[in-house]
Design a protein that fits this description.
Elements lengths: L3 E5 L4 H17 L2 E8 L5 H21 L5 E7 L2 H8 L5 E6 L13 H8 L3 E6 L9 E4 L3 H18 L3 E6 L2 E2 L2 E2 L3 H17 L5 E6 L3 H9 L4 E4 L13 H8 L5 E3 L6 H12 L8
Parallel strand pairs: 1-2, 1-4, 2-3, 4-5, 6-7, 6-11, 7-10, 11-12
Antiparallel strand pairs: 5-12, 8-9
Helix pairs in contact: 3-4, 5-6, 6-9, 7-8
Length: 285
């Protein structure tokens, strides 16, 4: 369970969307909600007053509409990515808004959502300013066997809490019009399917191997979904978790994106070995 939801607020529409998303999660989980605002250094007195007023007004509105919510506020200083990274704990979920929406258009290197996701040590949710009321289902990106089970389990938990189906997507390079699935990629999608079905037998789970560039395939799969779940780009805690695929997805997010920091455990491979050896519930093509 998430210990608290930490939401960065700055008065923008994407930040307001992030607050709405986090409030619903915190209410469902019975978790605490922490609103934070970051002041750039050096901060002047007027900026500090404006930040305090923003936090106070936002908290007041939420207290009136969500009286049972455990709510706190905190002012931070420094660069936004570093300030947030220093503040969160590994068991938190950091929720940030993003105005970067589209389909592989309008790329801006150094996008703040990418910087924050690369710096934070906890799970990060990046929320675009979109109408999510009619979105259903969870989609998860599977890239390699080392993280496949953990990503699938994190995504399965999200699908189970929503009572909706889960779609596992793996992208492969193509020769002509046919995907060139390798043995390692087949084992990865098999691992993901087995782990998710074992942990969440009541969730409807489908899978797809797409012969398209990974970011394009994931964004296409997420365009009408409530959530896209991805794993870290690197398992090495000393390196940035942002790989090229995650970078492109975040810059063009068309649904909420959950970047799970769950680390694959070796016990999971034992639990799924039987399913893998039986043909591993081969992915729907």
């Amino acid at each position: 369970m998430t210990s608290r939801y930490v939401v960065a607020v700055d008065g923008s529409r994407p930040a307001a969307a992030a607050v709405r998303w986090a409030v619903e999660r915190a209410r469902t989980d019975g978790a605490a909600l922490m609103l934070v605002h970051v002041l750039d250094e050096p901060a002047d007195a007027e900026a500090a007053r404006d930040g305090e007023r923003l936090l106070s007004d936002t908290a007041g509105q939420l207290s009136a509409s969500e009286p049972g919510l455990s709510l706190q506020t905190q002012m931070l200083t420094g660069s936004v990515p570093r300030a947030l990274a220093s503040f969160v704990d590994p068991d938190d979920m950091l929720v940030i808004g993003t105005g970067k929406t589209g389909f592989l258009h309008g790329r801006v290197l150094g996008s703040r959502s990418v910087q924050i996701a690369a710096t934070a040590s906890c799970t990060v949710a990046v929320i675009p300013d979109l109408d999510l009321r009619f979105r259903r289902g969870v989609v998860a990106g599977v890239d390699r066997r080392e993280t496949a089970g953990a990503v699938a389990q994190a995504a399965g938990a999200e699908a189970a809490r929503r009572g909706e189906e889960l779609l596992l997507v793996q992208a492969e390079p193509t020769i002509g019009t046919r995907p060139t699935a390798s043995l390692s990629s087949e084992l990865a999608i098999a691992e993901a399917l087995a782990r998710a079905r074992e942990a969440f037998p009541d969730v409807v789970i489908r899978s797809r191997v797409a012969g398209r560039p990974p970011a394009e395939a994931l964004l296409d799969g997420a365009r009408d979904k409530a959530l896209l779940v991805l794993g870290p780009g690197s398992l090495d805690p000393s390196r940035s978790p942002i790989g090229s695929v995650l970078h492109d997805v975040l810059l063009n997010a068309n649904s909420p994106v959950l970047i799970s920091r769950a680390v694959e455990d070796r016990a999971g491979e034992v639990a799924t070995a039987a399913a893998v050896s039986r043909g591993a519930e081969r992915a729907d093509r």
